[in-house]
Design goal:
The protein is of the alpha+beta class and 215 residues long. Helix content is 23%, strand content 31%. It contains four helices and 13 strands.
Length: 215
């Protein structure tokens, strides 16, 4: 439930509740299409000797600065708490810059009169493949395959998986360094590059990026 002005916007708690309203159906279709375009998984027969991770839809109302509804957002997530360390994943950490780094860069930008731009990466975790053999229950509402006999074998990272933030960090690190950026020595989630004497700084906070510099 999200607050909007003096009233509440109801966020569904279940798929059954969400399908009662067209805005949530449209949002689920958008999320599924994103998953389909990114070829996130293959439908396979349910394995007998493997853990199958639980999955569910997550419904959120994104609000603008003054409380109006900006977007109805739906994310299909894996319930990572059902994964077993050492079997389903090895490492789990998120690329989160230090608050002190963020404050320092914002203060520097204000002092130097630099412009600041903020952006977020859409379908962040779908940008990277996963190495582990992970199976999840299929999307609720998707009737293409039999629910009992088929599951989804993941090819890409998915929200909720323990290894997804780590996979995203690997992907964005390779991307930035491939462009010539240097990773910060004190904060591993801050990158900088100088081109023809012009400086660009990027601060990474999971899927949110702060960009600033003198050009």
């Amino acid at each position: 439930m999200a607050l909007m002005g003096e009233c509440f916007v109801i966020e569904p708690y279940s798929f059954k509740e969400a399908v009662q309203k067209s805005v949530w159906i449209d949002a689920m279709v958008e999320e599924y299409n994103s998953i389909f375009r990114n070829s996130v998984w293959d439908a396979v027969s349910r394995p007998e000797d493997k853990l199958v991770v639980i999955s569910h839809w997550l419904y959120k109302v994104k609000q603008a600065a003054y409380g109006s509804v900006e977007k109805h957002k739906v994310i299909f997530v894996a319930c990572g708490f059902s994964q077993v360390e050492g079997i389903d994943y090895d490492e789990s950490f998120a690329p989160v810059s230090r608050y002190s780094s963020i404050r320092s860069i914002l203060a520097l930008s204000a002092h130097m009169g630099w412009k600041i731009h903020q952006m977020d990466v859409k379908t962040t975790f779908l940008n990277e493949m996963i190495e582990e053999d992970v199976y999840i229950e299929k999307l609720e509402g998707l009737q293409t395959f039999d629910h009992e006999s088929h599951v989804c074998r993941l090819k890409r990272a998915l929200y909720g998986l323990k290894q997804s933030p780590c996979a995203w960090y690997t992907r964005i690190y390779k991307y930035f360094t491939g462009l010539g950026f240097t990773k910060g020595e004190v904060d591993a989630n801050m990158y900088h590059i100088a081109v023809e004497g012009k400086l660009l700084i990027i601060v990474l906070y999971v899927d949110d990026l702060i960009l600033t510099g003198d050009d």
